[in-house]
Amino acid sequence: MEGSSFIDPTQAQYQNLYQPFEQVMGQDHPSQGEPQINNFTMPASNNFDELTIILGNVGNASHLQWTHETARLLVSIISYIGEAESSDGNASSRKLKLMPIIQKWNAISNVMKERGYTFSPQQCEKKFFDMKRTYNELVGLLGRIKSCEVVENPILLDSLMMPAIQKEEVRKLLGSEQLLYHEMGSFLNADRMYLPRDLELRRSVFRNLDKEGNRKELVQNQNQIKRKDLSTRWNEVEEKSLEIQEKMLQMEKARYEWMCANRDEDLKVAKMRLENENLRLENARLAYQLKRQKTVLNVHDNN
Gene3D superfamilies, alphabetically (predicted)? Predict the structure, then answer.
């Protein structure tokens, strides 16, 4: 019909999947009653066959359950993609940002399979956003510092001044499966304090990203500049990483020495302030004695 447009239903379902990966990481996954893949709403169902028709073949993923080990592995995999995208604007990072989000979740699922855990891309996405939502809700109720203290010592919750209904919500969040508060905090704060580096896992992540169709685009500029053996290039990267860590250690040492020096200066200033106060009191005492002597002399003169 003239003036109207026809939209393929299949295309309509997946047209919102192709968003920058960092934008998807900033979104909260929907509630558990209505699982979604980005903006495509999937009807809630307990029938695995129906979900398979909607999502496609997910292999034996339904037979696995998430554990702390598999959830921590998932966060580590996603953190390496985030690190690559947030690098200093090189060609590889720019092309990685343009990769369709569905291909990134496919790569994440493939890395999990290489480690022996068969989870579909949709299951990986849902699990990640469930953990992220739990973390954000906990921090929203308690604040970043208090939530960290309560996670490490839940007994502290009883001593907090807050409504009982909020305490009950916090207890439910603390009882969530695979809370991984510290790991999610490290990911969202872009540090690796609770996400130890695994070079083999990092290689696996980029290898699977390449397999998703962008391998030639990701390494094209590097191959045009230098054609070196892959192991040699990797050794150079590791050597550069060690140099950076050494510089960071030197900077931390300099900062510590600066803090110690400032502390000594602060102590000297405090000591001088006390000495000045002591001199002021001594002068006040002498002035009082002189005044008293003058008063006594005036009394004798009057007599």
Answer: Homeodomain-like (1.10.10.60)
